[in-house]
Amino acid sequence: MTTFLYILAAIVILIVVLGLIAPNNYEVRRSIIIERTLPDTFQYLKSIKNQDNWSPWKKKDPTITQSFEGTDGEIGFVSKWKGNKDVGEGEQEIISIIENESIDTELRFFKPWKSQSIGHLFVDKVDDNQTMVTWGFSGRNPFPFNIFMLFFNFEKAVGKDFEEGLESLKKILEHK
Questions:
Q1: DSSP 148-165
Q2: Where in the sequence is the domain holding 45, given as residue range(s)?
């Protein structure tokens, strides 16, 4: 019995130590330059419904069910989705728009696990006909879920999806 208690105590201590050293926050961003004016690019990005055309997650589940509340492109607009195991279930709400600069959304995931993140879209003028688009999101890793981040390269996994999405966005806007 004593051995069992020592093993249990060691496991608890290990979990606590890992929880203390594991990252509490995450942020993933990717950028791309698009041959399109900044105002045109921003207007396209402001519409959350347009994400269906370039989001990698829409491709992962073409039968996803969606519903919308509010006016697309305005603060308070909510896009809700229910999809397969690759996209889960959640909603995205526009929480901030700075015209021709940025769009922030709150991402609320319900399945496969509950979490919240802030999505970011930034646009920067490169020249009169080129715009840099930066897409990303950030959030907190609460204990004990932060321990998982020690063993999973979240930046690489999600970053790959952002790169794919930005490439699709580029193709759409440059051929529009």
A1: HTTTS-HHHHHHHHHHHH
A2: 2-174
Q: Which amino acid is at 165?
A: G
CATH of the domain at 89: 3.30.530.20
Distance CA 82, CA 50 (A): 17
Query: 154-174 and 38-46 helices cross at what angle (nearest 10)?
Result: 120
**pLDDT exceeds 90 at position 10:** no
Q: How would residue 127 be classed by pLDDT, with cut points 50, 70 and 90? A: very high
Q: How many domains does the chain have?
A: 1
Q: Give the CB-side neighbour count of residue 42, counting CA atoms within 13 A.
A: 17
Q: Say if CB 22 and CB 15 are below 8 A apart.
A: no
Q: Are strands 65-69 and 78-82 parallel, antiparallel or unpaired?
A: antiparallel
Question: pTM of the entire structure?
Answer: 0.83
Amino acid of residue 73: G
Q: State the residue for tokens 């950030």.
A: 138
| Token output for 122 | 């930034």
The encoded tokens of residue 111 equal: 């399945």
Tokens of 30: 């990717």
> Residue 86: phi, psi to the nearest 5?
-75, -30
Fill in the amino acid letter for 144.
Answer: P
Q: What are phi and psi of 139, to 5 degrees?
A: -175, -170
